[in-house]
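User: Can you help me understand a structure? I only have the sequence.
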Amino acid sequence: MHVLVTGGAGFIGAHVVEALLDAGHQVRVLDLLAEDIHPSGWPTHLDARAERVRGDVRALPRGALDGVDAVCHQAAIVGLGLDLQDLPSYVSTNDLGTAVLLAAMADRDIGRLVLASSMVVYGEGRYRCAEHGLVRPGPRAEPDLLAGRFEPPCPRCGLDLTWELVPEDAPTDPRSVYAATKLAQEHLAAAWARGTGGSCVALRYHNVYGSHMPRDTPYAGVASIFRSALAGGQPPRVFEDGAQMRDFVHVTDVARANLLALTSPAPAGALTTYNIASGTPHTIADVAAAISAAADGPAPQITGQYRLGDVRHVVASPARAAAELGFTASVSFDEGMRAFASAPLRA
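Assistant: Let's start by predicting it. Here is the structure, written out as tokens:
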């Protein structure tokens, strides 16, 4: 199979490229190589076997889709960003870029797409109230956060809630600009699939970590931010009380999930979504402690600080991916965090 990987020079994209090449596929990488992300051009860790095309997904270079059988769409601006001034960039890159790509695929009769989506489309995760059953708490109020009340209460009675695993058919509730753009990408891909008869698999990544993550940036994942603090001799600073539940999945497992999504049967004319997670949730404090211990660094500092727009708990079920794609994570939390503590990061 000849696969175009957009954003293939990025953190996840480069690992996807390597996994596809190792499986015997032909790979073309399309990447903007934005100077603030790749100041030295093509990264040295990008597999030399891949064909490379520099260009913007919003204005596809001539020949980018020539001979391509399938597209693995990783190109996106990620993370929560800094403020609403980032909104035009997110929408332009993530949503307009996806629309341009899908239109070109339709014109070329390329009928297979794997889309990098995210667990952020769920907003807060799945919660159960002892009195009212499944409920959907609203955004957490700043006075509660200031007072250190981080758990979202039942919106009907105010009682404490218990978090549960989120299935793919749970209602979506994006609570940041990034989340809204990822959900919009899914909707655009679904419209493309219905209109062309193509098949699209959207992989809702959980907290991905591993070698060549970006560092020293507000757009990086929390594991990378902890690494950067330790590299500077500082303790990892953990927001809230550190009890936020997440699922951390290693990037090599995410790359394998993309390979399975590209090569497994998928329904024509439809979008299929899968949670890509390890299945072993941990708290943010667990992550900070594991990285600090592996790096022989100072103990994490619980700050009580918060960011408006952050959600408290979001942990999804990987059962559908296991049943339909044959995907289960192979890198354990302990193994992955030990390796990550000394893995190379991208400046």
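Now, to help you interpret it: The CA atoms of residues 122 and 340 lie 27 Å apart. The longest strand covers residues 112-118. Let me know which part you'd like to focus on.
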